[in-house]
Design brief:
The chain is α/β, with parallel strands linked by helices. Helices cover 45% and strands 19% of the residues. The protein has a single domain, classed as Response regulator (Rossmann fold).
Length: 102
């Protein structure tokens, strides 16, 4: 599973990604990119997580992701605030699993 974390391009997202990588299973890859570069990276991922500070961009990101079959979800604010990589990875896995069922 390849996870794209969409952020405003700040330091906090890189901290969350580091925490997520600690909870990644073999073969799971996590990367973060600013909301302005989503269109360059969305073709290479399985799921997109949107950081709380750019939640207002979720609809636009979904419009890019839907034709590609890539699910998009928000990182829970508490997970982001506490840099809880396990919670963020759990969210990504649940989004991907739900997308595969539907």
């Amino acid at each position: 599973m390849r996870v794209l974390v969409v952020c405003a391009g700040g330091l906090s997202s890189s901290l969350l990604v580091s925490s997520m990588e600690k909870h990644a299973r073999p073969g799971e890859v996590v990367e973060a990119h600013g909301e302005g570069s989503v269109s360059r990276f969305i073709h290479d991922v399985d799921v997109v997580l949107v950081a709380p500070q750019v939640a207002f961009k979720k609809d636009a990101i979904e419009a890019l992701a839907k034709p590609l079959g890539v699910p998009v979800g928000l990182i829970p604010g508490t997970a982001y605030g506490m840099m809880d990589g396990l919670a963020a990875m759990t969210t990504a896995r649940a989004l991907l699993a739900a997308d595969r069922i539907s």
